[in-house]
TrEMBL record:
InterPro entries: CPQ (IPR039866), Peptidase_M28 (IPR007484)
Compartment list: Endoplasmic reticulum; Golgi apparatus; Lysosome; Secreted
Keywords for this protein: Carboxypeptidase, Endoplasmic reticulum, Glycoprotein, Golgi apparatus, Hydrolase, Lysosome, Metal-binding, Metalloprotease, Protease, Secreted, Signal, Zinc, Zymogen
Identification of the protein by name: Carboxypeptidase Q
Residue stretches making up the Peptidase M28 domain: 261-450
Source species: Ponticaulis profundi
Primary localization class, coarse: endoplasmic reticulum
Length: 471
């Protein structure tokens, strides 16, 4: 019955496509057999899961630019060498450093009580002992942007916007605007600081951190996220009478701190300069241990590549594994990679990043040329035994490879189920115990299967072979 459902689903997707798109490229029987062996091997693989467990246990939280992130780079490079990867390197770069030292908030009146908060990345310090001021509440960023200076001046802004729970995480884009921009808008209107309802979907009493916008917003003012129950409490109090809050944030910063990308390869047997890039980000926020975001992604791509390494012979093209640094603070590792390898981007045949937790992959999206859609359909058919549906041709690829996609590199997005992802994302509850081993291994199987196919088959996915720009 499941196979029949897959056939009907696949046929319905193809029905609206052009004749070229409806074609399915042929996969030779020996290659198809290898793909299926990789899928089966992934279902019992422990390499990736152990990598994630060790990263989140031996290193723990890995704040960008910190000593812990440096230890994670060295540890990861040593592990990749021990696993047998070729050309394991660390490519260093520097970043602006930010770290929380102290954070607290409390209602001063009308009903004194503590509030559960966490400072947002890029927040500046308040004065020693904090700021005490009346709250002014807005339902979203648009309301704050439209507010008069007189309404905001001398007050602490409170943005009380809830995030919508979705399978694909699409609710995040709207909700994250307040985190990025609240401090700038507040200070521009004479406000003192900004509190936001956490950008997340859980209702437990812990807050979600995350980065404020860089550029003009960097260092704009003090800003923190409230746990959802604390945001509800403030709203109830404000419906009764005006509320005064004390907010205390103390941070440390540095203009230059070390970071880096860890890169390992399985050298292709025929065309080693052509590469299939599969990546993750090695850094994490400091509240949890960065298991879901993104220790799991690193374990998934390392485990998948290790399965390919153990085949009787290497695939035709090189498999490149990139563990990006400093993603959480502005995709800085992704930009560093794109800049350093600008002259070689035409050699990246395909790229994908695992950065959406460890739940099951349910759909496989691509971003290929029209002529390459038969290859997309072939890959999607090969993944159907894993319960993965064919997707669209509008893949983003992932945060750290978004700049590669803009430069013309073909990308795929194995869409994970993100229904619960933002219950854990950027919180103290992002820990290893939240990973389901069976779901994790389905991801390993998926990445091993499509990466091997792209590396072994002489397929080109590019929309434009001649025009490549670099950042």
């Amino acid at each position: 019955m499941l196979d029949q459902f897959r056939f009907v689903l696949f046929g319905s997707v193809l029905a609206g496509l052009s004749a070229a798109a409806q074609e399915v490229a042929e996969i030779p029987a020996p290659v198809e057999d290898t793909v299926q062996r990789l899928i089966v091997a992934g279902s019992t693989d422990d390499v990736g899961l152990t990598f994630t467990e060790d990263l989140t246990t031996r290193i723990g939280p890995r704040l960008a630019g910190s000593e812990a992130e440096a230890r994670a780079r060295d540890w990861a490079a040593a592990e990749l060498k021990a696993l047998g990867f070729d050309s394991v390197t660390i490519e260093p770069f520097t970043i602006p450093y930010w770290n929380r030292i102290e954070e607290s908030a409390s209602v001063v009146s009308p009903a004194p009580q503590p509030l559960t908060i966490t400072a947002l990345g890029g927040s500046t310090s308040t004065s020693e002992g904090g700021i005490t001021a009346e709250l002014v509440r807005f339902s979203n960023m648009a309301e704050l942007n439209a507010a008069s200076r007189e309404l905001v001046e001398g007050k602490i802004v409170f943005i009380d916007e809830k995030m919508t729970r979705t399978q694909d995480g699409s609710g995040y884009g709207m909700a994250v605007r307040k985190r990025r921009n609240c401090a700038t808008a507040t200070i521009d209107k004479g406000g003192l600081a900004c509190l936001i309802r956490s950008v997340g979907t859980q209702t437990a009493r812990f807050p979600h951190t995350g980065m404020m916008a860089r550029g003009e917003a960097e260092g704009a003012g003090p800003a923190a996220a409230l746990s959802p129950p604390d945001a509800d409490q403030l709203t109830r109090l404000m419906s009764w009478q005006p509320v005064t809050v004390n907010l205390n944030i103390q941070v440390e910063t540095s203009p230059n701190a070390p970071s880096g990308n860890v890169i390992a390869e399985i050298t292709g047997r025929e065309t080693p300069d052509e590469k299939i890039l599969i990546g993750c980000h090695l850094d994490s926020w400091d509240l949890g241990t960065g298991a879901i975001d993104d220790g799991a992604g690193c374990g998934i791509v390392v485990g998948a590549a290790k399965l390919i390494m153990e085949l009787e012979e290497a695939p035709r093209r090189t498999i490149q594994v990139v563990l990006y640094g400093s993603e959480e603070v502005g995709l800085l590792g992704g930009h560093a990679y794109a800049k350093r390898h600008a002259a070689d981007l035409s050699n990246i045949v395909l790229a994908a990043e695992s950065d959406f937790g460890a739940d099951r992959i349910w759909r496989f999206d691509t971003r290929f040329s029209e002529a390459a859609l038969p290859y997309a359909r072939a890959i999607q058919e090969a993944l159907q035994p894993l319960g993965i549906a064919p997707g669209n041709n509008e893949a983003g690829g992932g945060p750290d490879i978004s700049m590669l996609a803009r430069s013309g590199v073909p990308v795929v997005t194995p869409q994970q189920n993100g229904w619960d992802y933002f219950d854990l994302h950027h919180t103290p509850d992002d820990t290893f115990d939240k990973i389901d081993p069976a779901d994790f291994r389905q991801n390993v199987s998926t990445y091993a299967a499509f990466a091997y196919l792209a590396a072994e088959m002489n397929w080109s996915f590019r929309k434009d072979e001649t025009a490549l720009s670099s950042e």
